[in-house]
Write a structure and sequence with these properties.
The complex is a heterodimer.
Chain A lengths: L1 E10 L2 E11 L4 E5 L6 H9 L6 E6 L2 E2 L10 E4 L11 H11 L11 H5 L15 H14 L4 E5 L7 H16 L3 E5 L3 H7 L2 E6 L2 E7 H8 L4 H8 L2 H7 L1
Parallel strand pairs in A: 3-8, 3-9, 6-7, 7-8
Antiparallel strand pairs in A: 1-2, 1-4, 4-5, 9-10
Chain B lengths: L1 H13 L1 H20 L3 H30 L1 H8 L5 H31 L3 H27 L3 H29 L6 H8 L3 H10 L9 H12 L1 H28 L3
Classes of the chains: A alpha/beta, B mainly alpha.
Chain lengths: ~240, ~260
């Protein structure tokens, strides 16, 4: 469970997040959408502790993110752009991550994506030589590897090939069924359609709405997420979004 | 902590730059004793390399390394690893790599071919200067977000410590040559780590006889055990203060 209370963050004079409050529960599959610069990535980075908020608090499974780092055991994160140490080989990266995560036993590793993306076959390649899509595959496999109860994916599908894309979406759906909390941002709304059941709409650092997709469908009598958004938000913003 | 340091270190060892650094310094360190029959002169050459080339290479490399590792740092920090662990590991990893490189390429030939107090001072100064300039590099690169600007500041700072500061000091000495400024100059030279190391080593060699009147004051100070203690404490302080600032900054910055 992620609980965000009155979170604010400024970069210089620019307010990126203005008093954001959200409560995300296990079993939810939340799509976070909003125009560029609406604060999506900053919010995710704040949850991960990479960005330190000016005010407000975040608790992850009951632990305050400002105190200690053990809460990150519960989070699997796939960044928007994955870059790894160039000299490291794929197998070495996985070995290193496993060694760093002594809190997870070998029996509870989740290697579904590792196998589906055939990462075994690229194990001798240096990470610097991988293509953007392959790096995303490695990154996705890493996010799920330690069987976290919270999964955060930042633009996961942008660089993936269609088959990998489907496999990742399948994995996300399965994780939600297992009662995990999934938070995804993407600009490709048709991808989110299948995997998300809740929508958070961020605009200029504020939460515009946070609702079940089904409820929104009933309200707008549209079925597709991008149509729903167009209906709900002022057309000129909706254009920028879709 | 050890695990992260170990990964930083193994990444550094695989880096060709470090190998190049060892080969370059090694060629000078081992080579100079082969071609120079007077070890005193060889020592002075190695001193110049240690005082000028070593800070430059160490600081430039440490800065580049930090900037190139930013994604790796982010990756580490999304795991249950404390920020403290990451910054300490980077400092420890870089320090071990560069200190080991210096000891193999300059320290070892000095000990083998010219085992004297001067050599000991030179090796100790080289080790401390390595730590100092890694600490300064970490401070600058955690402070300056932009890579190109970070590199610029690094080079400027090296130029400042390596010769601009001495130039200013000389100017000051000429201007106030009429007055008894020896103690002031002494105090001012303690503010530059390269100067501290240089004076501490020269005072141990015969060349110090050529330094004239202010040399006598310097000699009195640096020749005493108190002076040696003060100068090495200052060098130690030069490691701790920049590193402390880098550490503090790293804990509080957005990544």
């Amino acid at each position: 469970m992620i609980k965000i209370e009155n979170l604010s963050k400024c970069y210089g004079n620019q307010a990126v997040l203005r008093s954001v409050s959200l409560e995300l529960h296990p079993g939810q599959s939340v799509a976070m959408i909003g125009p560029n610069g609406s604060g999506k990535s900053t919010l995710i980075k704040a949850i991960l502790g990479l960005v330190l908020p000016d005010s407000g608090a975040i608790t992850v499974n009951g632990r305050d993110t400002r105190h200690g780092h053990s809460y990150r055991k519960d989070i699997g994160y796939m960044p928007q752009i994955s870059r790894f140490p160039e000299h490291l080989r794929v197998a070495e990266l996985f070995a290193m991550m496993k060694k760093l995560r002594t809190d997870v036993t070998e029996a509870s590793y989740d290697e579904t994506l590792y196998q589906q993306f055939a990462i075994e076959q690229m194990r001798h390649k240096p990470l610097g030589s991988l293509s953007g899509g392959m790096r995303q595959q490695v990154s996705a496999a890493l996010a799920f590897l330690f069987n976290p109860s919270i999964i955060i994916l930042d633009e996961p599908t942008a660089a993936l090939d269609p088959v990998s894309n489907e496999r990742l979406k399948e994995k996300v759906k399965q994780s939600t069924r297992e009662g995990k909390l999934v938070l995804v941002t993407s600009h490709i709304l048709s991808d989110l359609d299948e995997i998300a059941r809740q929508v958070v709409y961020l605009m200029e650092g504020e939460v515009k709405f946070f609702e079940e997709i089904d409820a929104l469908r009933a309200k707008t009598s549209e079925t597709q997420l991008n149509k729903i958004i167009v209906r709900l938000i002022h057309p000129e913003y909706a254009h920028a979004e879709s | 902590m050890q695990k992260v340091s170990y990964y930083v270190l193994s990444d550094l060892i695989k880096n060709r730059f470090i190998l190049g650094y060892v080969l370059l310094l090694g060629a000078a360190g081992w080579g100079i004793f082969m071609i120079e029959s007077q070890p005193e002169k060889a020592l002075l050459v190695l001193m110049q390399i240690t005082l000028l080339a070593l800070p430059l290479i160490t600081m430039v490399f440490a800065t580049i390394y930090y900037y190139n590792s930013r994604e790796f740092i982010t990756l580490l920090l999304t795991q249950p690893i404390a920020r403290r662990t990451v910054i300490v590991s980077f400092f420890v990893g870089l320090s071990i790599a560069f200190v080991a490189g210096f000891l193999v390429s300059v320290g070892l030939p000095l000990l083998l071919f010219y085992p004297t107090a001067e050599s000991g001072f030179l090796i100790l100064s080289g080790v401390l200067l390595t730590l100092i300039f890694i600490a300064i590099a970490l401070y600058l690169s955690t402070q300056v977000e932009d890579k190109a600007r970070g590199m610029g500041v690094t080079l400027l700072l090296w130029a400042f410590f390596a010769f601009l500061y001495d130039g200013l000091l000389l100017f000051f000495m000429y201007q106030f040559g009429e007055y008894p400024i020896e103690n002031g100059v002494l105090a001012l030279s303690l503010l530059n780590p390269i100067d501290i190391a240089r004076i501490a080593i020269i005072m141990k060699t015969e060349a110090s006889a050529l330094l004239g009147l202010s040399g006598a004051v310097f000699r009195e100070f640096f020749g005493s055990s108190l002076g040696v203690m003060v100068s090495f404490s200052m060098l130690l302080l030069w490691v701790l203060v920049p590193y402390g600032l880098a550490h503090r900054r790293f804990l509080r910055k957005d990544l």
